[in-house]
Design a protein that fits this description.
- The protein is mainly β.
- The protein contains 4 helices and 50 strands.
- The strands form 15 sheets. Strands 21-20-15-14-24-25 form a 6-stranded mixed β-sheet, with no helix packed on it. A 6-stranded mixed β-sheet has the order 33-32-27-26-36-37, with no helix packed on it. A 5-stranded antiparallel β-sheet has the order 46-41-40-49-50.
- The radius of gyration is 30 Å and the shape is globular.
Length: 811
């Protein structure tokens, strides 16, 4: 639809959902009709960042995301867009069915808005929405008009779950003048709700599926041309052609509407209001109810994960526990088979549900339970598992002397309670040359008991996975998996059921929110690093020494010395300790660049206070300290207690470069519990961090010894911090988003909002430059494009005389 400046000023936004920068050089974005076909000659999209494709000089200066210029225009009638990488692999699509655009309105419409994605799930019409939220309109087109969208920043659509207004259908007249008309008046949400879902079928047949709707109003509602669909498209139909008992497809006031799959014998003694076709997946998909205008009226299992209730073993239905409760996993229950219940299946057996009757779930109260057994108390969905509850303690990525394919992985329970890992996933990511791709995805099952003793022969507390049952011939695996790890190095993630089904964050850029990860730091160019230990020549396993850390120095290659346990398929000694306490627990790292450890009698690392630097912001563009100004005093240093005991930080000091720079700052008397942070802005500490590079040091007051330090290079952009990823233990990342007092992040998801930047120049810039750039009459003269861009290609001012232009580069 373009912009108000011109309907021909079109643009497309890309978003990088990964934790690494992606080089887009050679990528293509193709329209189904061949125009436009965009081949990106060069450009990089940062981790968690945005990249804009524009067909002309579309944006004002307040749109700061990187852009790429293309030629051509999109059809107002809709067309499929396909994004491909350099190999031609399809990365994503928009409007994949090629029909009319699922959202967005022409600029001739007073309520025009861009077509925004509502999430990062697979492309579907239901995933797109017209931006109708004026509070999100902060950017301007080239003529200074407000853009009804969010170019270069997080979508408004990401914050909502349903379409608040009727969608528009764009039609063209014979004179090619486009108009936008609303197809219907939207139905108020929750007017009709999905109150029961028989996704598992019945005892008579698992294919005898059924659905129940309920009308909460005092008026009958005609459901003709309403739509019911699952997000995978397996079920997708319009309500019409109802049975003789309901020829008008009307749901009565305070009444029910029953839909049965294929025939009316699914519930043999209750008449169906309509028959439909299509099978609901037992693995679960979001189920949507839309009115005749396409507006979402209600959902069931709206997050698209596993069904939050219902049982394919007992055939208990999934029931809503309140007629108008907002859809979430917590409001659904599995019918236990007790009363009330209603209906008979095709064989005459009682239905474990209440089709066309008030729900059994209305009479029950949720209580916590550790099993998924359907009971009258209901079943709660999975909850978050604390970081490092279970750790990946040993990885034999090289296999054994018997076979390089005889790989094995060991997990360790760090708690004093048994941990059930049913539904957890152990996922590995490898770098395929252009991006990260999933290699292994092992669904775990079982329970890991707590460690019962410190005896070296005690196998409690451990969970052993083997690539085949004979990989370790004399130790029985707790689980056998298929596949193998790449010897060049991968990233391993341990994700709980909550991560997989509820939060859906079993990804690289959220690894600090998972249960554990291994080899999580990346190279400077965003690729995976080699395994920090282990050997494909000696077949020594990679053992973890400190379960709290993912630093490369915490991993060791087993040398084959004792303690060792297990025999390979040929009866040779395993160079490792599968299902036993790690040999690496008894060694001390040497200062050399090898992972060959030497034994010491120390049984385990001792518990001691561990205070480290966690995040540094050396160049601010936001009022982080909320004093109403954006200046050098918004710079900050954050420390964290990365140990397991309380720490009084008055024993420490902060400083930058030795014998110079700012004065030493003594930390106040404050006690940090494990995992807690302390934040010190420059306005408090007096430490002025240099944009041109500096060193931040944490010093012990008693002897002036350096406890921790981080040296950083030139800071080239504002609001780019240096952080440990993950907090306290992870590797240093140069390019985090500032998160003072909150978990470190590579994107703006966890960040607080603040006022816009006052000046983008470094704080060490000469006064004359700052005045010309940022103060009165300052107009961006540092930017070469101000002078050198051709007319219509993004120039602020065109200077045709070569003698009248100049460039200054200051660092």
């Amino acid at each position: 639809m373009g912009t108000l400046a011109s309907p021909d000023h079109e643009w497309i936004e890309l978003f990088n959902n990964s934790g690494v920068n992606v080089d887009l050089s050679g990528w293509t974005l193709e329209a189904a009709d061949g125009g436009p076909t965009i081949t990106i000659a060069s450009g990089t999209i940062t981790a968690g960042g945005y990249f804009l494709l524009r067909n002309t000089n579309v944006f004002s200066v307040d749109v700061i995301a990187p852009t790429y210029l293309y030629s051509g225009s999109l059809s107002d009638n809709g067309e499929e867009l396909v994004l491909k990488d350099t190999r031609g692999d399809v990365i994503d699509t928009a409007n994949a069915n090629g029909d009319n655009w699922p959202a967005g309105r022409l600029t001739t419409d007073p309520n025009h808005g861009t077509m925004e994605r509502m999430g990062i799930g697979a492309d579907a019409d239901a995933l797109w929405i017209t931006n109708a939220n004026a509070a999100s309109w902060t950017k301007h087109d080239i003529a200074g008009n407000v853009i009804h969208g969010t170019p270069g920043e997080s979508n408004w659509g990401f914050t909502i779950t349903n379409t608040p207004t009727a969608t528009a259908t764009v039609t063209n007249t014979a004179t090619a003048t486009s108009t936008a008309t609303s197809t219907s008046t939207p139905t108020n949400p929750k007017t009709v709700t999905i109150t029961e879902v028989g996704w598992m079928g019945t005892q008579a047949s698992s294919t005898d599926e059924w659905l129940e709707l309920y009308n909460h109003t005092n008026q009958p509602i005609d459901l003709t041309n309403w739509r019911i669909r699952t997000t995978d498209g397996a079920v997708d139909f319009l309500i019409d052609g109802c049975e003789a008992v309901n020829p008008t497809c009307t749901i009565p006031p305070k009444g029910f509407f029953l839909l049965e799959r294929t025939d009316d014998t699914v519930i043999s003694d209750v008449d169906a209001d309509m028959l439909y076709s299509g099978e609901m997946s037992n693995s679960g998909k979001a189920l949507e109810l839309r009115d005749a205008g396409g507006n979402i009226v209600d959902t069931a299992n709206g997050n698209g994960g596993a069904w939050p209730a219902g049982s394919s073993s007992t055939f208990g239905s999934m029931e809503r526990s309140g007629e108008i409760l907002t859809d979430s996993d917590f409001i659904w229950f599995t019918h236990s088979g007790g009363n009330p219940k209603n209906g008979l299946d095709a064989n005459g057996d009682p239905i474990k549900g209440t089709p066309k009757n008030s729900n059994w779930a209305y009479t029950v109260t949720a209580t916590a339970t550790l099993t998924n057994t359907p009971t009258a108390t209901g079943t709660l969905p999975p909850t978050a598992v604390p970081f490092k509850t279970v750790v990946i303690s040993e990885v034999a990525w090289a296999g054994t002397n018997s076979s390089s394919y005889d790989e094995w992985i060991e997990l360790y329970n760090t708690t004093a309670q048994p941990v059930t890992i049913d539904g957890w996933h152990l996922v590995s990511f490898r770098w395929n040359g252009t991006q990260f791709a999933i290699n292994l995805d092992i669904k775990l099952k079982g329970t890991i008991p707590p460690r019962a003793s410190s005896n070296q022969n005690d196998t409690s507390g451990y969970f052993l996975l083997e690539a085949r049952e004979t990989a370790i011939s004399n130790i029985t695996a707790d689980q056998v998996y298929s596949g193998s790890l790449y010897n060049t190095g991968e990233i391993l993630l341990l994700c709980s059921t909550y991560n997989v089904e509820i939060a859906k964050n079993c990804t690289l850029n959220t690894k600090n929110q998972l249960v554990d990860f291994v080899n999580g730091s990346l190279t400077n160019d965003g690729k995976s690093k080699p395994w920090p230990a282990g050997s494909s020549s000696t077949y020594g396993s990679m053992e973890r020494r400190d379960v709290r850390s993912d630093e490369p120095t915490t991993y060791f290659t087993h040398t084959g010395s004792t303690p060792r346990f297990g025999l390979d398929a040929n009866g040779n000694n395993i160079k490792g300790t599968p299902k036993h306490a790690n040999w690496a627990f008894t060694v001390t790292a040497t200062p050399f660049a090898t992972y060959t450890p030497t034994r010491t009698p120390t049984p385990r690392p001792s518990t001691a206070p561990i205070l480290v630097i966690n995040e540094v912001l050396a160049r601010s563009g936001t009022d982080w300290n909320l004093d109403g100004k954006v200046d050098v005093y918004d710079e900050f240093i954050e420390v964290i207690n990365a140990g397991t005991v309380d720490v009084n930080i008055s024993q420490y000091k902060l400083d930058d470069i030795p014998n110079g720079g700012s004065a030493v700052f003594s930390l106040p008397s404050q006690t940090l519990k494990p995992g807690e942070k302390a934040l010190f802005y420059a306005s408090q500490s007096g430490i002025r961090l240099e944009d041109a590079g500096d060193t931040v040091r944490l010093i012990r007051s008693s002897n002036n010894s350096v406890v921790d330090e981080i040296a950083y290079p030139v800071v080239r952009s504002v609001d780019t911090s240096i952080c440990r990823y993950t907090d306290g233990y992870g590797s240093w990342i140069f390019g985090c988003f500032p998160t003072p007092g909150r978990p470190n992040s590579l994107s703006q998801d966890n960040a607080q909002a603040g006022p816009a930047s006052a000046c983008l120049m470094p704080d060490s810039t000469p006064r004359e430059f700052v005045q010309a750039e940022c103060e009165e009459f300052g107009d961006g003269i540092w930017n070469p494009s101000y002078w050198d861009a051709l007319p219509g290609e993004g120039s602020e001012v065109w200077k045709p005389d070569p003698q009248d232009k100049w460039v200054i580069y200051y660092e």
